[in-house]
Amino acid sequence: MSVVVPSSLLPASAVPAFRGRIGRDVHSGHYAAPHRYRLHVAPSDPDCLRIALTHALLGLDGTLPLTVLPEAPDTPDGGYDALRPLYEASAHLYGGPAAAPVLSDDWTGRIVSTHVPDILRDLALRFRGEGPDLLPEEHRGDIEALSDLCERGINQAAQRAGELGLDDEAAHRDPLTVLFTALDSLEHRIARHPYLLGDAPTAADVHVWVTLVRLDTVHRWHLDAAAMDRVAGYPALWAYARRLAALPEFGRCLDIDALLRRHQADCRGREAAGGAIRLIDWPAATDN
Predict the structure, then answer these.
(1) Which of 3, 121, 227, 253 makes a 20 to 30 Å CA pair with 20?
(2) Nearest to 102 by CA among 48, 44, 36
(3) Residue 127: phi, psi to the nearest 5?
């Protein structure tokens, strides 16, 4: 059964926590049956992009349909009118945002999950099909560590550095130190293998690649030129990002213009000189 946090207890921007899981067999309430479930994503959102990439890598088009939503929410609370019936069917008197992503059950017309880590894990473990093993047992600790590195070491650090600007140089240096330490670690790792954990893609590559896309298309607008010059100084890492962008599974999911429009519509930060420094021509890299 899905667990719903009352919307009155959530921040206005938070997505309600439907936390149903896909089980192993028919004895589970939600078990992995072809054509039973549907994903609803807006790939202009980074979390949705990670789900769309995972879906593509696993080759699930014929097993688990994916509905692509408009690039920007169409309700004032950050939700989608198209998802409202699912939310209302899944929670009595639901009054929060009908936000993406959603994994829904077409048999019941209700939501299974809106929790991104759970959705990604269940896709990889329950719907693998002929696709790669994105969560190999021997690498799960590394995958979790790399996911944390992406969120804390890159996304949060770059966001914090952009918010601080140069008004307080000492405070500005602290998140940049975290950011460059994380990029150093990734540069060292990717120099040894085609993918982060060896010769095949895993969930870590999905998370890191989306993080690099965000760094070059969203965070750069709020970093100064000196910081972006340093960000550019990781040749193996950006070659890796460009190489993955050329793969059909990655390239077909990425719409840079939509990602930028969504960011610009929501962004209240100030633009810095780093916005002029573009590391990858993403449309050209994905043109295959």
Answers:
(1) 253
(2) 48
(3) -130, 35
